[in-house]
């Protein structure tokens, strides 16, 4: 199972430790909000709105250098646009794993 | 150079701002989490370039470009590659970067912006560029904040429905918020013909013509008296 990492963030930050800390802080704030929004839309059967959130989460997966997870999210976003939620349970597992990772940094 | 950053994601704005800080002659004037607030600023103040997320709820990047009368140079940022072709239909858009942005790619983009500014010097119009729709093979329609590509040769009929149009393709029908006149300007004259005030047809899809109607698939499309001469002129009649 693919694990998130800070490779991209380190490259982006370079020697700028202050930026790195600030960026991680933004990520740690934004990610749980998007998870909550995603779950709310799924629970309300608002699949198009859920797809919009998945679209944003895709970018986070890239930031955390998770290429496989990104591709999974691309498929899931397309699926949600058609009103289907078959990949929801697997997606939630991924979100939990990333959220747990963010708590450690 | 001055710029603004528009993206509904805080992380995305932070990344663009970080890259901007590495360019010595580039100043970030403001950051926005929505395009509407950015338009308010641009109505009061000019900037050289806008880093613009294309996929935002409510008011998309494309809506932004279409809305501004004198649009600054725009660099699109997005997680999708599928919008790339549509993006370059607008003269204001000088580059298109797929997230996550890298320093190397950002530098290239800045070079493109500088080149574009050197050529024009002033903000450009948001009119679509190119030599007209005849050069293109497709158009994009905006459905629920998604840009969907339609190849001209898959479009059968376009029907006016008040403030909307119905586009019937080989496989699907799309309900789009625009006018028949607007889409007519996007469709190549060689392939499409307006045969009624409410109908544009793909000329190559005609099965037969009977009296005052055209048959396309199972659709019977009326021909108006005023449009009939042009239709007859276009027929390769034996």
UniProtKB/TrEMBL annotation, chain B:
The modification 4-aspartylphosphate is found at residue 53. The keyword Phosphoprotein applies. GO terms for molecular function: DNA binding; phosphorelay response regulator activity. PROSITE patterns: HTH_LYTTR, RESPONSE_REGULATORY. The keyword Mitochondrion does not apply. Residues 139-237 form the HTH LytTR-type domain. InterPro entries: CheY-like_superfamily (IPR011006), LytR-like (IPR046947), LytTR_DNA-bd_dom (IPR007492), Sig_transdc_resp-reg_receiver (IPR001789). Gene3D superfamilies: 3.40.50.2300, LytTr DNA-binding domain. Keywords: DNA-binding, Phosphoprotein. Residues 2-114 form the Response regulatory domain. It holds the Pfam family Response_reg. PANTHER family: STAGE 0 SPORULATION PROTEIN A HOMOLOG, TRANSCRIPTIONAL REGULATOR-RELATED. This is DNA-binding response regulator. It comes from Zobellia amurskyensis.
